[in-house]
Amino acid sequence: MDGTRRSDIKPGVRVAMVLKKDQRTGTLTEGVVKDILTKAATHPHGIKVRLQSGEIGRVKTIL
Description:
Distance between the termini: 8 Å
Number of strands: 4
Strand content: 35-45%
Helix content: under 10%
Number of helices: 0
Structural class: mainly beta
Radius of gyration: 10 Å
Shape: globular
Order of helices and strands: EEEE
Strand order of the largest sheet: 1-2-3-4
């Protein structure tokens, strides 16, 4: 599942996301969602989330 729909993502779900610093390379970071930061129902580049580790990025896939 891709990470463009907010309804698919809940706190506690494991995701692969791209951090702001990795947007050029597309390097994925895996982790567990702590907070959902995007208020819109969808976003073409992925829903922005905060992981339990504190990292912030846009979800590319839901694991």
